[in-house]
Every structure is written in structure tokens, then in C-alpha cells.
Design goal:
This protein is an alpha+beta fold. The protein folds into six domains: 124 residues, no CATH class; 82 residues, Beta Barrel (OB fold (Dihydrolipoamide Acetyltransferase, E2P)), CATH 2.40.50; 137 residues, Collagenase (Catalytic Domain) (3-Layer(aba) Sandwich); 86 residues, no CATH class; 104 residues, Immunoglobulin-like (Sandwich); 87 residues, Immunoglobulin-like (Sandwich), CATH 2.60.40.10. The protein is built from 13 helices and 40 strands. A six-stranded mixed β-sheet has the order 14-20-19-18-17-15. Helix 4 runs antiparallel to helix 5. The radius of gyration is 33 Å and the shape is elongated.
């Protein structure tokens, strides 16, 4: 049974300590090779260059990678009689390596991709070892974001998950594509997905976002090949919800089912149902029941097993005559658990949500909002910084203008797309009876492929509790335009104040408010040049070759400077470990804003290098300002062939009796992963012939051969110089 290792400790532990923590019963014993030499698993030196400060998770992984490759090479050399007894050490090392891969995956997926072992090496491993080594798979499932909310601490954790069949374990998905981001993953939420990835335990590493095929979970057509765009649709319908209240064995809830029911399903006031019904103009309602509390066999001081709580809660509800499967949403209300670090949790989009603060209506609205694909209402510096939306700090108020537009709740004529300068009137978006009059201004933010949303709010209806700073002022938000996505409150403008975006040449001014209407001035001019570090990717991220081999990679560079910068030139460089040489097909690329280009990168390892993973770095630097530079990492895994070829004498048969005066044709077969150099045929230890191409054969003239027993031997030599042989006996009469 493996122990869990806290991520922060991975940065400080030695490999030996790490191995002992994860595998307390597996000894780091030596592998005995045929020559009786001892190879200690913990003694193999690391060969790759490292990223960051000393003793980082990445360094630990590089060290273990090299030790694992050395151990695998030694194991492959063992005679069959010793392989089984030495397998446990190799399995234990593979498990340790997998734990480090998962830890690095969570810290930096792109670096983890460079540390992955090529599949050709995995194919050489015994199945017991390969089970713990990353594998290329093609997967299908529904995408969702798992969001945990720590409102008190102002922090949140979002993990993209692929949900399979009922009862199967959701798999965490991480993006390693250099041009990809969390935003790209979130666009896939709520879609049925098919893609290739590296599977590492219960985690999936997506290497190329262009290969994702996405379609709506309901009936619909697949998006164009290579697209990761989610289709925007109106959030609507009655959300039949079951809130199940539970007590832990050592702690009870302070709320009753009646209290929770009124907060979620109440028809008037700042309830979840009324907030969504009002903001959506009747498109979204919440109906259902709150039941319990039921006591479940979990303690508040135990682990944060929210899935276990959910199963126990549903079982208790069923025992009480309530069928959770009859509800579109299930909300689990529990006492607080100190090990969780959150007060709310939900799938976005999804069926389930958890609340550990039963007396906060805003938290119910927030978590159930996640279920409907609404993400956080943030500011550039604070995860829950927008106090004008329940998706911010969980206030029981209406939603901001950006969320209303993206959810499809603003009717035709209430959203005005602005592409030219001018003065525009907007009616307050808190008034949900308005139609045909602009309530939200929307304009393109070209440099990041987002939109600005400009709106006015008043303290009326479900916005009665709106903070004073948002009342009769103009709010400027930005967002991508498609749910699920965060909205960012950029500025709240009182009369006379302006928000400026110099990069895109946009200025938004509150020219005054009166009678629930704001006059907003928009000026659009030429943007200024805003430089940013280029995007750099190396493909493939990891390759393998024998020592001395030459491998080719592709280095792609994308210009992320704003359009006002025009074309930019990027110098391309390389950093190689000792023992490597390399060349680039071009050392510079001239690219327009948003354009990409690539060069071929050829690298050769020294013939004397030991087996191991070696880090190769490629970088691109903006020649106009060297501060804007990006380095991408790849791996060259040296793994020289240590497995001898297989060979067999196929004719004549062992024990055959040969007679007559005609020459005898001797045939042999030979195979090897790295190719066969030659097959030699021996008669009684004397070389008869050497054949360098299949089918391998030789003619043996038996006219002058002494009668009696003779030995025919076939020796195969592979391209690495390793040999194998087989002998048979024949009788000449």
C-alpha cells in the first residue's frame, strides 16, 4: 500500500527518502547481472540538465528517470532465470517515478510532457512495470471543470476532468500544448470529447489541442477537426434539485431542511430560484426538495472524502424514500471539515455540488451557478473580487452584465455591439423588463480575443443588496464571450471617469447617469505596440535513440505581440547538455502579429553517452527587445539496445539425418528491434558463411564431411553488436 506524499515535500526529499515514503516495503536492492557485477538502483547518476532551483520536483524526476532506465537496461541483460526475482525492484522504481510524474504534472504540464518516456521504450517493459509508465491512449468522455471554493481564503482550485461511464473514476486532464491554456480547456467543458493523450495514473496529459474532437453532450454535430471552441447556448430550463442535508458522526448541521429549502427554492426575495428566474427573465428556475439531515458514518476530523459523503447521503435519502436519480441536480449540505479547505465545491457544468456553509444563500447560488456553467466573477488580482455577482464573493444578488449576455439571458436589442467611436445610452441591466433598448455595450478586445462588456446597475429587485460602489455607476468587464469562462471586473466608473486600453486604442468614459440611464463615451484610435514573450513549442516533446544517433525536432514560434507592433523578428537558439551537438535549419524567424513559423532542430548525442533522459532547450527571443524570450524543453532519451536478437535454425530440423551427395541448404531466421547486422552459420564451430540480408541461408557441401554427428550453429548479430545463437545436431550418413 503506497503512502500519499504531500507535494511540497517533493522539493526537498532525496530520491531514497521519496522511494521509502511511497514504497516502505520495497528495498533498493542490487540487480545481479550475468557477470555478477552489481548495479545499485540508487547509484545511477543523473544526466539531464535541470529546471529551477536545486532539488525541485523536476530534478527528482530526472534522477529517477535515469535510474529507472539504467535498471531497465540491466534487467534486460539478465538471463531468464533471474528476471522474475529482480522484477520487484523495477516495479517499485516505476511506481516512484509515476508519483513524481503526477506531482510535476500538477506543477507544470509542459515540463512533464518533456519528461515522458517514449512509447518505444515502454513497449520493451514487462507488463508489471509498464502499468506504471505513461501510455498513449485515445479517450472519450464528457468534459467538466471541478471547482473548489475557499471564500474565506480568497482562493480556488479548478481541475478539468473527463467523466466517463457512471461509476468510473473521473480523470484529471492537463494541457501540455505550448499554445494552450486553462481557457482552452474550459471551452471544452460540457462537451463530449474524443482525443489522444498520455495517461499517467488517473491523469491525462493533452499534448495537442488541435486533435480534440468536441460535440455537445446532447444531440449535435461535431465541431470542425482541430477546433477547441465550445458552442455557446442559452442557459435555461427548470433545474429540479435535491438538497440532501447530512450530519457527520461527530458534528451536526446548524440548519434545517426547511431553512435550506427556502434559501434555494423560495419564490420571492434573494433566493437562488428568484435570482436566476429574475436574471434569466424566466428562462431558469429552481424547483425541488431539501431533505434530511441524515447522519452518515463520517467524522468532521476525517479526510475530505466528498465523494464518499455523496454516496452515503444518497443511500440515506433512498432509505428514507427519496430517489436522487429523479433530480437533475443534487446538492450535498454538510458540516465543515477542516481537511477540505473549501466551503463550496461543484462540477462545472455538472449535476453535483457540495456546500459546507448551510446558512449562506449566496454560496448555494454560487455552486449551483457552477453547475450551470457560470465561472467566477473575478478581478485581475482577486479570484472573487467582483462583488457585483454571486459568482464573485457569493453575495445573494443578481449577475453582472457579462454573465447575463454569455448565458443568453439578454433578449434581442438589449446588447449593442460597438465597433466605432461615439456616445451610447445604456439602461440599467438590473431592470429585467427592458426590451429593445441597449443595456450592455459589447466591444472586441482584439489582442486577447476577448470582449469588453459595459453596463449600469441599480439597487432594485434581486439587486437590492448590491454594494453602493456598483449603484448608478458604469462597470467595465472583460470575458471570452462563451461559458464557462471567468468574468473580470476591470473598473467601476463614476461620472467623468474613464477606462483606457492603450494596446487596442479603446477608451470608455462614463459621461453621466440619470434616471437609470448612463451615457457612455467610446473612443477608438490606433493601438500602441505591446510586446509579449513569444510562444515556443518543441515537437515531439520526447524521443529516444541509441547513443550517437541523430534525431530531429520541430521548433515552432508564435508572435504574441499586438498588431500595432507589425512584423517582428525572433532569434532562435539552443542549449544542449554536454555530449550533444545540434543545428537549426534557421536561426531567425520574421513573423506578423499572431503568426507562427517553425524551424527544424537536429541533435546528435555522443556515442559514449550512458542511458538516460537528457534535456534539450530551444529558445526564441524578440530581437527588438531581448527581455521578451521564451524557452521550451524537450527530452532526448538515450537508450542503447541491450536486448540481444532472437535466432533459430529453421532448416534442417534438429536431429535430422542427412544423406546423398547434394549440398544441404541451411536456413535461419533472426529478429531484433534495432535490426539485424548479419547471421553467421557455423559447422562444428567453424564459420561456413555470413549472410547480411534475410532470408538468411548457406549451402553446406556434405560430400567430404565425415559421417556421423555434426553441430550446426546460427549466430545473429544486431546493429548494436549484441549476439545470440542457436545450435542443432544432425547426422550425416
Amino acid at each position: 500500500m503506497a503512502c500519499r506524499v504531500h507535494r511540497s515535500l517533493l522539493r526537498r526529499w532525496s530520491f531514497y527518502e521519496m522511494h521509502r515514503a511511497i514504497h516502505p516495503f520495497v528495498k533498493l536492492a542490487p540487480i545481479v547481472v550475468a557477470s555478477a557485477a552489481l548495479i545499485w538502483l540508487a547509484g545511477t547518476p543523473a544526466h539531464a540538465s535541470h529546471l529551477g532551483e536545486s532539488l525541485t520536483t523536476d530534478q527528482q524526476l530526472v534522477s529517477v528517470n535515469n535510474q529507472f532506465l539504467g535498471a531497465l537496461a540491466a534487467w534486460e541483460k539478465l538471463p531468464p532465470s533471474l528476471k522474475s526475482s529482480n522484477l520487484a525492484n523495477l516495479v517499485g522504481l516505476a511506481q516512484t517515478r509515476q508519483q513524481l510524474m503526477i506531482a510535476l504534472l500538477q506543477l507544470d504540464p509542459k515540463v512533464a510532457a518533456a519528461r515522458a518516456l517514449p512509447q518505444s521504450i515502454r513497449a520493451r517493459m514487462p507488463s508489471q512495470v509498464a502499468a506504471f509508465v505513461e501510455e498513449t491512449v485515445r479517450v472519450q468522455g464528457n468534459g467538466a471543470v471541478h471547482v473548489s471554493d475557499n471564500f474565506a481564503g480568497g482562493t480556488s482550485k479548478s481541475v478539468f476532468k473527463l467523466l466517463g461511464n457512471a461509476g468510473s473514476t473521473p480523470q484529471n486532464v492537463y494541457m501540455a500544448d505550448a499554445s494552450g491554456s486553462e481557457r482552452d480547456l474550459h471551452k471544452l467543458a460540457g462537451k463530449k470529447l474524443t482525443f489522444a493523450a498520455l495517461r499517467i495514473g488517473d491523469n491525462l496529459l493533452l499534448l495537442d489541442k488541435k486533435q480534440v474532437q468536441a460535440q455537445p453532450q446532447a444531440a449535435g454535430s461535431t465541431t470542425a477537426s482541430g477546433s477547441v471552441q465550445a458552442t455557446t447556448s442559452t442557459v435555461q430550463g427548470d433545474q429540479k434539485t435535491l438538497s440532501i442535508l447530512v450530519n457527520f458522526s461527530d458534528k451536526a448541521l446548524s440548519c434545517t431542511a426547511a431553512d435550506v429549502g427556502s434559501r434555494v427554492f423560495g419564490a420571492t426575495g434573494a433566493t437562488v430560484n428568484n435570482i436566476f428566474k429574475t436574471d434569466s427573465r424566466g428562462l431558469v428556475t429552481f424547483s425541488g426538495n431539501a431533505v434530511g439531515p441524515y447522519t452518515i458514518n463520517y467524522a468532521s476530523t476525517g479526510s475530505c472524502d466528498y465523494n464518499g459523503w455523496a454516496s452515503a447521503a444518497e443511500a440515506a435519502a433512498k432509505a428514507a424514500g427519496v430517489d436522487p436519480t429523479q433530480y437533475a441536480r443534487v446538492n450535498y449540505v454538510t458540516p465543515s471539515n477542516g481537511s477540505c479547505g473549501w466551503s463550496g465545491l461543484a462540477y462545472m457544468p455538472g449535476r453535483q455540488s457540495w456546500v459546507q456553509s448551510c446558512s449562506s444563500t449566496g454560496i448555494y447560488a454560487h455552486e449551483l451557478g457552477h453547475n450551470l456553467s457560470l465561472h467566477h466573477a473575478a478581478t485581475p488580482t482577486a479570484e472573487y473580487g467582483d462583488g457585483s455577482d454571486p459568482m464573485g464573493g457569493a453575495a445573494a444578488i443578481g449577475h453582472n452584465g457579462a454573465n447575463k449576455v454569455m448565458a443568453g439571458w439578454q433578449p434581442a436589442g438589449t446588447v449593442l455591439d460597438v465597433s466605432n467611436a461615439g456616445s451610447f445610452n445604456v439602461t440599467n441591466v438590473s431592470d429585467n423588463s427592458v426590451s429593445g433598448t441597449a443595456q450592455v455595450l459589447r466591444m472586441v478586445k482584439a489582442d486577447t480575443a476577448e470582449f469588453y462588456y459595459v453596463s449600469l446597475r441599480e439597487a432594485t429587485g434581486v439587486d437590492a443588496g448590491l454594494g453602493a460602489s456598483f449603484v448608478n455607476t458604469v462597470s467595465v468587464h472583460r470575458a471570452t464571450g462563451n461559458l464557462p469562462t471567468k468574468t473580470y471586473l476591470l473598473q467601476v466608473l463614476t461620472a467623468g471617469q474613464s477606462f483606457s486600453d492603450a494596446t487596442n486604442g479603446i477608451t470608455i468614459t462614463n459621461q453621466g447617469t440619470s434616471g437609470g440611464v448612463a451615457t457612455v463615451g467610446v473612443s477608438m484610435g490606433g493601438g500602441v505596440c505591446s510586446r509579449a514573450s513569444p510562444t515556443v513549442a518543441v515537437s515531439p516533446a520526447s524521443q529516444t535513440g541509441s547513443a550517437g544517433a541523430t534525431l530531429s525536432y520541430s521548433v515552432s514560434v508564435t508572435n504574441t505581440n499586438s498588431s500595432a507592433c507589425g512584423s517582428s523578428t525572433f532569434s532562435i537558439g539552443q542549449a544542449l547538455p554536454s555530449g550533444f551537438s545540434g543545428s537549426l535549419s534557421s536561426t531567425s524567424l520574421a513573423l506578423g502579429s499572431g503568426s507562427s513559423g517553425s524551424v527544424t532542430w537536429t541533435t546528435t548525442s555522443a556515442a559514449t553517452l550512458a542511458n538516460g533522459s537528457y534535456t534539450l532547450d530551444a529558445n526564441a527571443t524578440d530581437t527588438a527587445n531581448s527581455a521578451y524570450t521564451t524557452t521550451a524543453h524537450a527530452s532526448y532519451t538515450v537508450y542503447s539496445n541491450v536486448t540481444p536478437p532472437t535466432v533459430a535454425v529453421t532448416s534442417p530440423a534438429n536431429g535430422a539425418v542427412l544423406s546423398g551427395g547434394h549440398p544441404v541448404s541451411i536456413s535461419a531466421s533472426a529478429t531484433d528491434d534495432g535490426g539485424i547486422q548479419a547471421v553467421e552459420i557455423y559447422i562444428d564451430g567453424v564459420l561456413l558463411a555470413r549472410d547480411t540480408g534475410a532470408p538468411y541461408s548457406a549451402n553446406w557441401n556434405i560430400r567430404k564431411v565425415a559421417k556421423g554427428l555434426h553441430t550446426i550453429k546460427a549466430r545473429a548479430i544486431d546493429n548494436a553488436g549484441l549476439m545470440a545463437e542457436q545450435s542443432i545436431s544432425v547426422t550425416v550418413n
